[in-house]
Amino acid sequence: MSSEVSETVVIHTDGGCRPNPGPGGWGAVLRMREHVREMCGGEPGATSNNRMELTAPIMALEALTRPVTVHLYTDSTYVRNGITKWVLGWERNGWMTSAKQPVKNVDLWQRLQLACSQHRVEWFWVKGHSGVADNELADQLATRGLEEAVAAAALAI
């Protein structure tokens, strides 16, 4: 990553399933100056809240076209703690937890690590459904992603 990272992109992400496990959706809001990009997607089959919460920042970071500083907001303590506290230990231990169990969602943790390595990412936790406009929008986008995935799967039958 270049040391000349000067622009800051603010990203809010959310993900979830209905039921959990079940079909899921993710959403992300990316802001840089006056530019706003809304993203969403979903999985019509059985996935989990945690997988969708991880997918949202991955997709947002992978959508960036050049290295930037990112302020990434998530309402998932699993995602924030995982990427800021746990992931290096998991990697060092061969992707095993401290209880010697395989790390769940290792494919997504590795992909998130790679996406983060392209940027200077600062992680922030925000309480879900607390009136933070872009977090609420990310939640709405995640719901749209879930609904679109389920509808597309129904059409494919």
UniProtKB/TrEMBL annotation:
Cofactor needs: Mg(2+)
Residues that coordinate or bind Mg(2+) 1: D14, E53, D75
Top-rank lineage group of the source organism: Bacteria
CDD domains: RNase_HI_prokaryote_like
Keyword field: Cytoplasm, Endonuclease, Hydrolase, Magnesium, Metal-binding, Nuclease
EC id: 3.1.26.4
Gene3D superfamilies: Ribonuclease H-like superfamily/Ribonuclease H (3.30.420.10)
Protein name, entry field: Ribonuclease H
Database matches in Pfam families: RNase_H
GO-annotated biological processes: DNA replication, removal of RNA primer
Subunit-structure text: Monomer.
Domain RNase H type-1: 5-147
Stated family: Belongs to the RNase H family.
Subcellular location: Cytoplasm
Function: Endonuclease that specifically degrades the RNA of RNA-DNA hybrids.
PANTHER family linked: RIBONUCLEASE H1
Molecular function GO terms recorded: magnesium ion binding; nucleic acid binding; RNA-DNA hybrid ribonuclease activity
Gene behind the chain: rnhA
Annotated catalysed reactions: Endonucleolytic cleavage to 5'-phosphomonoester
Free-text comment on the cofactor: Binds 1 Mg(2+) ion per subunit. May bind a second metal ion at a regulatory site, or after substrate binding.
InterPro entries in UniProt: RNase_H, RNaseH-like_sf, RNaseH_domain, RNaseH_sf, RNaseHI
